[in-house]
Amino acid sequence: MENFDLINTAGISIEQATDIAEKAESSRNFSNMIGPISVGLSTGTSGNRGIFLINENERARWVAYVLDRVIGFSLKKRKLAFFLRADNKLYQSVKSKILDFQFFDIHLNIHEHVTRINQLNPDILIAQPSVLSVISELQTQNKITIQPSQIISVAEVLTPEDKAKIENTFQLKISEVYQCTEGFLAAPCKHGTLHFNEDFLEIEKKYIDQEQAKFHPIITDLLRKTQPIVRYELNDIISEKKNCPCGSKHIGINQIEGRSDDIITIRNATGAYISIFPDIIRRTIVLSDPDISDYKVIFNRSTFHLAIKSQNKTSFSKAKNALIHKLNTYDIYDFNIVKKVYEATDLGIKKRRVENLND
Ligand SMILES: [Zn+2]
């Protein structure tokens, strides 16, 4: 991000891009374009924020790869429900004669989506594991009554417990996609193993243990040109799966550790329990001040223990105010936010930044 202006080939400055992305985020109308280039904000896995740029060709290629490797091509018209934090132009582009792509904003309380999702009865459901978990619970309570033939888990880490629960509810196998703002990184084979897309990604392994079982991937995208991704190290921790029965030569993934944040459940002014997805908390904090380089939130009873890492003394109050403002939009007023000292060790091996200690 420090060298954004030099690295991108579209001649877009970091100020210009940040301005467009922030406006799109706060107005929630998502007209995040500079000419033919769409601009996105990512909170990534590293705790700070990034800006990404993608042109129309790159977007088209993304759609083609997702269709080919994840959704699978079919002439039968299918309906997709995509739960997402922002309606990026990137995702809107998967709308065609054979796919009816419906977007559900995870900023809204999940209960506001129940009627619409039941009416849509999607063939394909795409969401983060935390959202899939809630949908699965509502399905067991008969509040949601959909019969998807495919469920795709994106963005966060899908724990084995959640996976089993959701698969049991819907009686099907979940497909997992390893996708982040740095690109479409890995897709599942027919045995359900995620394999890196090594036909267009160069993956280097930076081992973090002596046994060489776990590594940070260093990625080079051989196709992206608007914002070249060259030897970019991700904070995710990958454990490798060797000898997948599918026979693919692409590196197999046993598990991705690093983004297993918790849902926070809290009462609003009418006494109803509201689920706040970790992505909402992450973005609220990270976007409150560009100086924030890392953070940790622990929610216990009705108190948020907030630790902010920043060289700027005002960062804590900016993050605190942003969090208050965000919770107020859900009609939530009965909570405290207390300051904690940031300690790198708080994150532990799982790098959990948002943690819920309540049952
Ligand atoms: Zn495989």
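^ zinc ion complex. The first strand starts at residue 33 and ends at 34. The chain has a mean pLDDT of 85.
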